Amino acid sequence: MTTPAPTPGPGSLDDDLANAVVTALGTEHAAVWVYGLASAFLPSSAGTTLTAASLAHRERRDAVVALLGRAGVTPPPAAAAYRPPSPVTDGASAAALAAVAEDDVAAAWRAVAERTEAPDDTELRRLALGAVTAAATTSVTWRQLAGRTPLVPAFPGDGTAT
């Protein structure tokens, strides 16, 4: 008789889901850093959106660190710096970088949502879906400020929007 594989319960994550959550945490770390950089270049009119987005990423990062800790997973720290895909030299390039950060966050959290199972992962699924929604919404503002189209990607979180 074979013993069934244990299923993760509340407070535990299987390896695939844990890796996806750690990846999502990495995108949250990067987004916080990106908003610090972008703040030096974005116009003051973007200040409210920038502050709200930065705070949302900080709060989500802290929630993920706590969630991983409860699951017995050591959360990796943020890197000292991140390499933007292109130079940031003005408001438009800063807004474009913020849109990239939001797209990365959406893709990572979509991967988390795809790996969750009810009812054990309800908290994590809600966190993931909220993150995808927030990132997709916020990226529209940054695309508009950067002069990029389309403003709304066809499938937020699929990793193909720029």
Describe what you observe in this structure.
With 162 residues, this protein is mainly α. The chain has one domain: Up-down Bundle (Ferritin). The protein is built from four helices and no strands. The protein has helices spanning 15-38, 47-70, 91-115, 122-146. Helix 1 (15-38) packs antiparallel against helix 2, helix 2 packs antiparallel against helix 4 (122-146) and helix 3 runs antiparallel to helix 4. The longest helix is centred in the middle third of the chain and has 25 residues, at 91-115. The radius of gyration is 17 Å and the shape is globular. It starts with 14 loop residues before the first helix and ends in a 16-residue tail after the last helix. The model is unreliable at 1-10 (pLDDT under 50).
Give a summary of the structure in a few sentences:
The protein is 60% helix and 0% strand.
Taken in chain order, the helices and strands follow as: HHHH
CATH superfamily: Ferritin, core subunit, four-helix bundle
By CATH reckoning, the class would read Mainly Alpha
Mean pLDDT level: 89
Beginning-to-end CA distance, first to last residue: 52 Å
Let me know the largest β-sheet: none
Please tell me how large the radius of gyration is.
Answer: 17 Å
**CATH 2nd-level architecture:** Up-down Bundle
Number of helical elements: 4
Shape: globular
Which percent range describes the beta-strand content? under 5%
Write down the domain tally: 1
Helix content range of the residues, please? Answer: 55-70%
Class per helix and strand makeup: mainly alpha
By DSSP, the count of extended strands is 0
Low-confidence stretches: 1-10
> What is the CATH topology assignment?
Ferritin
